[in-house]
Every structure is written in C-alpha cells, then in structure tokens.
Design brief:
This protein is α/β, with parallel strands linked by helices. Helices cover 33% and strands 18% of the residues. The chain contains 11 helices and 13 strands. Helix 3 packs parallel to helix 4. The protein starts with a strand and ends with a strand.
Length: 348
C-alpha cells in the first residue's frame, strides 16, 4: 500500500498548555485533526464553565481563519467544584466532558480528587446529564508499585464505580495495561478507552536503553512488553471502544532533562506517522480509519469529520525540536529518525 486516504481523525486526549507553549504546539495538531479534547490541567485549573470558555477562546484566537479544527474543552473535576455549573456548561456546548485526576497523579493534578466518595454528588449529576467523565486511571497510594497503579485503580475505583453509576459515560484515558484492555472489553461498549502512540511503540525497557531516557518518561508510565502487545492488539482490533488519544504533553526540554523531570511525551508532530507505522507492523492498515477517525465519534455520539486526509508512503525526518520563543525548546517524540508515512490534505 502506497497511500491511505481516510476520514480526518480526531485526538480524544490532548495537552495544549497555554501562553507561548500553546502558540508553539497548536499548529501540529490543528493541521491534521478535526477535533481534540483539550485537557484542563493548567495553573489555575480549568474547572468551571467560564474558564473553559476563556481557554477555548484563547485557542480559537490562534487558529487561521480557514481552520476547521475544533477544540473540545474538558473541565477539571475538583471536590469543591459545582456540578450544576459543569452540567450547564455541557448543555451550552462549552464543556465537552469532565477530567478526573486523582490528586498528585500527574502534571498539575494537586487539585484533583483525594477520595472517590468526595465526588459522588458530582458523578450522580454527570450520570443524569450524560456528561462524559474522562479518567486518569491510576491510584496514588505510595505503597502501590508505579507499574501496578492502573490495575489497582480499575479494581478499587472503576469497577465499584461502574456498579454504583451504571449509566455514567466513562472513558479510561491513555490505557497502558492488559488489565485495562480486558476491563474495557468486559464493559461491552459502555466504557471507552484512548491509547497513545508511545504506549503502542515502546515498553518500559526503552526508558533505560543506553542510559536514562527522560523524553520517554510519561504518566502512566510505560509498562512491560506483554502489556504493550495487549495494547497493540486492542488498537488494531477494530473494536469500537478503543480510539486515538495522543496524550501529547509538551514540556520544555530543560524541565525534562533535570534531576526531577516532568512526565509527558510531545508526539503531536509525528502522531499520525507513528500510529500508522504500528498498524502497518500489525498488518492492520485497513482498520486504521476505525481507530483514528470513526470509533471516537461513534462512542461520543458525534458525526465523523466530513473531510479526508491522506497518508502517503515517503521517507521523511521531522524536526527533532519545536522552538518556543522566549522559553526554549520542546523535544519531539521520534523526531530524530526517518518516518515512512507522511500526512497530506486530500479532497473531501
């Protein structure tokens, strides 16, 4: 196969940051994706309708006049937040979904949920109003091994939550384990899951090959090879509960190459190329459109994008870094090697 023409994809899990970082990274997503769910873990967090509207306006102001890209805003779930405001923002079309961060689980998550029962009243309101809840699926108990945190979250939090709120629209973000794959499949379409390109490409050994590799450090952390293989099988299966979410998370180079580096992989410039490489390796290019462009809209009850893009087979090497004027550089995931698929515009 020399080219693949398919419905313009969406990114169902994206970090854009704000200020100079936002301006630097936004074009790399807006060029190829129709929509993206934008994460709210800014400082201060995007935790209500007014802040979500202001952040959306900031993003839209940076887009070219002819851009079709649509930012879908996630609101940060806090224990003292007003669920009525979130529901109203969802009905107004400002808030797409709610992001559940366990407190201190990842970047800027200190304002997150300390105990699940503290947000039962919120979840009850979201269940009734059908507001999607997007889970960072890890426990933060220091006694739990970091490689086991997703599996324990499913057992302790998500399974009881599904029993208590069976009508809640749930997405398990950035799936990383075989346990997660099996749980999502067991829910028969009631739970969705996003999968990143870096979790499909690498297992945890990659972080330590030839030395410590800080630009592969992310949360949830890369897992052992059997988990990577389970993710690849899920993503390429064609099953509708699995869909594309890059979790592209830009951090300045000097904040990752330090004694306490930030967690996050900036993959937006190469996301489609690297996903396509995985699908080709698995002999599943015929199922790439489902994962990238169709499963997510179907799960969320939306129409797929109306236009199409092309992936053309051609060797190209993307830039290894993106400059942020006045701030520094962001290292691009897989930006130091040749890729064999190049995205291009295609006729509608």
């Amino acid at each position: 196969m020399e080219e693949l023409v398919f419905t313009r994809p969406d990114d169902w899990h994206l970090h854009l940051r704000d200020g100079a970082l936002l301006e630097a990274v936004l074009p790399h997503t807006a060029a190829w994706f129709g929509r993206a769910v934008v994460m709210p873990n800014l400082k201060p967090p995007v935790s209500d309708t007014d802040r979500a509207r202001a952040y959306r306006d900031e993003i839209r102001a940076l887009l070219p006049a002819d851009s079709r890209f649509e930012p879908l805003m996630a609101a940060y779930l806090t224990e003292d937040g007003d669920p009525a405001d979130i529901v109203a923002g969802h009905r107004e079309g400002v808030i797409f979904g709610v992001k559940y961060y366990p407190a201190h689980a990842t970047t800027h998550s200190a304002a997150g949920v300390r105990a699940i029962e503290n947000v039962y009243r919120h979840l009850e309101a979201f269940e009734e109003a059908q507001v999607p809840v997007l889970f960072h699926g890890e426990v933060t108990d220091p006694d739990i091994d970091i490689f086991d945190r997703e599996a324990v979250f499913i057992e302790r939090i998500l399974e009881p939550l599904r029993a208590r709120f069976p009508g809640l629209k749930v997405v398990l973000e950035h799936l990383t384990t075989r346990d997660g794959v099996e749980f999502v499949k067991s829910q028969h379409g009631a739970v969705g899951a996003t999968i990143t390109c870096h979790h499909l490409m690498y297992d945890r050994n990659a972080m330590f090959q030839g030395g410590l590799r800080p630009h592969l450090y992310c949360l949830p952390i890369l897992k052992a090879r059997p988990h990577t293989e389970a993710l690849r099988a899920a993503a390429t299966s064609g099953l509708g509960m699995f869909f594309l979410g890059t979790d592209s998370a830009p951090h300045l180079k000097h904040t990752k190459e330090t004694d306490c580096g930030c967690a996050g992989v900036f993959n937006a410039p190469v996301a489609l190329s690297t996903y396509a490489e995985v699908f080709e390796e698995e002999g599943a290019l015929d199922r790439f459109e489902a994962f990238a462009s169709l499963n997510g809209p179907r799960f969320y009850g939306l129409r797929p994008n109306s236009d199409r893009i092309r992936l053309r087979r051609a060797e190209t090497t993307p830039p290894s870094q993106v400059n942020v004027p006045g701030e520094g550089q962001i290292v691009v995931f897989e930006g130091d090697r040749a890729h064999r698929w190049v995205p291009e515009s295609a006729s509608p």
